[in-house]
Amino acid sequence: MNATRTESESPRWLWLAAIWFGLGLFDATQNVFVMRAEGMHHYWGRLFFTLLISWLPWILATPLVLRLTSRYPPVQWKRFSTWSVHLAACVSIGIVQAAWVAMWEEWLNPWALTPGPDPFPQLWRHKFSYGLLSSLVLYGLILLVDHVLDSREQLARQQTETAHLNEQLSKAQLSALRRQIEPHFLFNTLNAIAGLVREKRNDAAVNMIVRLSDFLRRVVEDSDRQQVPLGEELEFTQKYLDIQKARFAERLQFSVDVPQELLPAQVPSLILQPMVENAVKHGIARRVQGGAIRITASRANGTLTVRVYNDGPSLPVGWETSQSGIGILNVRTRLQSLYGDQFELSMRNQQPGGVEVTVSVPFVSEPASKISEG
């Protein structure tokens, strides 16, 4: 495992460096354009350069953080040495980053202050104290992204080893859905959190970190349960939609219409998340005005039917012959391994518009006492 991790560390570092550069470019561009639009007067070229280069310490510190996570895995949270090492690293990066930014602001005066910026020691101290929460957030997000990327690599190895075994294939597909978070989803969430921190909306930033943490904990947790109650699956999907809601704001509306008596019904674990993700990616995200997602469920003739509808663009002509997304393919493979031919999965256009994905499986209800134990 250590050898594999070492081999993948270089491309992982390049990927994370690209994320940091993207964050810096977004931060610099957004601040300059917004301030100019509001009629402020700064040295725009210097300000853009200062904001962009302020992310360099985090880019250079990422390999160090990755090495520390290999030696002191965050999952060993009960060890004092793990907390102390990572906390010391986080504070050290924050100190260096504050000094770096203070140096450039002292030299370039990008904010066009008169008679000029504060003396370097005072400016350094202010940058560190004001940016301490940002440093903790960013350091924690490096750990989260690294953990997710490492989980995805483990998944790839598991899928190769168990590709021809039906029972193991089902477990591998479940692991794929647990770990398969689009980098764009994480990137957009990081952007939203960084924006809240810059706006000093600390409570909102903390709430969003908690949501992301709860979501990732459920995604990467090691569980052998192939089926869960529909109510539990809906709660997890709600966490995903809450995070997407923070990204799209009023552009994303969603509703759940599931009768109370259907909540104990057994469904494959993580069956709804890729369907909802598909609706967000191909429906809501492609419309300037956004749209709505609706989740419904019904029971008829011993069959449970769950529908995920979005009012976004319709499927193009001939979409049936094109390659489906990996999320929908995993859903179909898992359904087949669990139910054989006793399931239905369809995706079709609706009138007057929108797309609906429908899954039908045998209705099996979990006893109330057993749900309480779970």
Number of strands: 7
Mean pLDDT: 79
Give the helix level as a range of percent.
55-70%
User: Could you tell me how far the N terminus lies from the C terminus, measured between alpha carbons in angstroms?
Assistant: 32 Å
Oligomer: single chain
Provide structural commentary:
- This protein has helices spanning 2-37, 44-53, 56-71, 80-108, 120-130, 132-161, 166-179, 183-198, 202-220, 230-248, 272-284, 326-339, 368-373, and strands spanning 227-229, 252-257, 266-268, 291-300, 303-310, 344-349, 355-362.
- It is an alpha+beta fold and 374 residues long.
- β6 (344-349) and β7 (355-362) form a beta hairpin.
- It is globular.
- It folds into two domains: 2-166, no CATH class; 225-373, Heat Shock Protein 90 (2-Layer Sandwich), CATH 3.30.565.10.
- The strands form two sheets. Strands 2-4-5-7-6 form a five-stranded mixed beta sheet, with helices on one face. The chain has a two-stranded antiparallel ribbon with strand order 1-3.
Any key phrases for this structure?
374 residues, alpha+beta, Heat Shock Protein 90, 13 helices, globular, disordered C terminus
Secondary-structure blueprint of this entry?
Blueprint: H1 2-37, H2 44-53, H3 56-71, H4 80-108, H5 120-130, H6 132-161, H7 166-179, H8 183-198, H9 202-220, E1 227-229, H10 230-248, E2 252-257, E3 266-268, H11 272-284, E4 291-300, E5 303-310, H12 326-339, E6 344-349, E7 355-362, H13 368-373
